[in-house]
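Exercise 7b. Backbone tokens:
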């Protein structure tokens, strides 16, 4: 591990067991990407030529015809939607997000309108798209989607995420079949997925990935798929894409991260992560009020997490108070707490430096011992947590 720069900046040395989170700096960037970025930074390049080289690498790894690098997967949604709306009309590209178009409706299943840190539908609206919600939160039937397609439909967006409703909706194959029957292109937000090929294989016209999640690249987004649609998305760099641009270092960094991904020892990493999960489970098993379960990733990424269910009567602390105590203590441990009101959170093993797994185990034991020793049950009302959720952001930078 390189030397830790955080203390000299006055930043807390957080340990990330929550997953790839933008708010924590996404992921550990792989050494190949770091040296690629350093090697290109001093030089001038013709950016579109570099993007052409990136296109070849993206095409090879995704099975798409072409690709390019942008600022984020969120930017990729906006650019792909914009491309579907404007085509190669340069004037229409300059006019966005104002649209004069015959087509700007973008279908998305209601159960897919989630927040990945910002709302999915905003990325569509930013591009001049009008998000047309299909079905209900927990059900989309074929007739919903078939009837939602009109001559104003420009594209359909499909989101793959642990955040989406995971039952009762159309799967990607059906979604594609219905869209394609009426000539509507399908854009898949696969920001956080390991499999770089499967969505295009299942018929998506564009697949979008984050460069900074599992790939361990710099902060960036990858747009891949059918050449004409990718080109139309790329042309947005002369319009709304300007503010979403990436520099040479990110383009080249993503190329290196993709190539490193191809050669990564995926089985070895899985084994190491399994070791971490087993260590944490051993630390927790047998403690009163705790249930530790190793569970697979909900979107089938080759990754397991530890689910820690907390019974406050026995453990003398609620799941959310435990999560907060871990985050406040030293060193701070940030857990995956999206569903903590259900009395559990997860520990994600995929963003740890070697040795940090032991610190996580020690901190868990420490906080649990402390809670058990307390005569009162540590139980802050969950409403307080949600009420104060944005306090820090609203006070920023103070
Ligand atoms: C993380 C995520 C995004 C946002 O990706 P960025 O590259 O950080 O913009 C979008 N969609 C899903 C499903 C995500 O998980």
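Sequence design result:
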């Amino acid at each position: 591990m390189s030397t830790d720069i955080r203390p000299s900046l006055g930043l807390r040395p957080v340990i990330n067991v929550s997953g790839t989170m933008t708010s924590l700096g996404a992921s550990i960037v792989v050494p190949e990407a770091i040296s690629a970025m350093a090697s290109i930074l001093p030089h001038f390049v013709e950016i579109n030529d570099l993007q052409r080289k990136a296109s070849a690498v993206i095409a090879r790894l995704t099975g798409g015809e072409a690709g390019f690098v942008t600022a984020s997967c969120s930017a990729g949604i906006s650019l792909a939607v914009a491309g579907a709306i404007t085509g190669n009309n340069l004037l229409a590209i300059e006019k966005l997000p104002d649209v004069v178009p015959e087509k700007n409706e973008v279908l998305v299943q209601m159960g897919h309108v989630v927040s990945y840190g910002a709302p999915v539908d905003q990325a569509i609206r930013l591009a001049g798209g009008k998000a047309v919600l299909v079905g209900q939160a927990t059900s989309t039937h074929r007739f919903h989607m078939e009837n939602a397609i009109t001559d104003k439909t420009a594209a359909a967006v499909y989101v793959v995420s642990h955040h989406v409703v995971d039952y009762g909706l159309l799967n990607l194959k059906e979604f594609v079949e219905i869209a394609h029957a009426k000539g509507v292109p399908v854009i898949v937000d696969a920001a956080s997925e390991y499999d770089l090929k499967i969505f295009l294989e299942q018929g998506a016209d564009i697949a979008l990935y984050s460069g900074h999640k599992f790939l361990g690249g710099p902060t960036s987004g990858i747009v891949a798929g059918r050449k004409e649609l990718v080109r139309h998305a790329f042309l947005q760099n002369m319009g709304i894409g300007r503010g979403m641009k990436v520099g040479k270092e990110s383009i080249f960094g993503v190329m290196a991260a993709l190539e490193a991904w191809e050669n990564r020892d995926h089985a070895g990493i899985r084994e190491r992560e399994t070791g971490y999960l087993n260590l944490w489970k051993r630390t927790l098993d047998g403690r009163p009020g705790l249930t530790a379960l190793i569970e697979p990733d909900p979107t089938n990424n080759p990754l397991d997490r530890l689910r820690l269910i907390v019974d406050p009567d026995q453990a003398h602390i609620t799941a959310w108070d435990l999560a907060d105590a871990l985050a406040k203590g030293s060193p701070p441990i940030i857990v995956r707490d999206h569903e903590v009101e259900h009395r559990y959170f997860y520990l994600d093993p995929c963003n740890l430096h070697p040795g940090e797994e032991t610190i996580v185990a020690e901190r868990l034991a420490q906080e649990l011992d402390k809670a058990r020793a307390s005569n009162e049950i540590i139980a802050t009302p969950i409403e307080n947590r949600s009420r104060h959720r944005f306090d820090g952001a609203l006070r920023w930078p103070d």
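Instructor comment: The first helix runs from residue 6 to 9. The chain has a mean pLDDT of 97.
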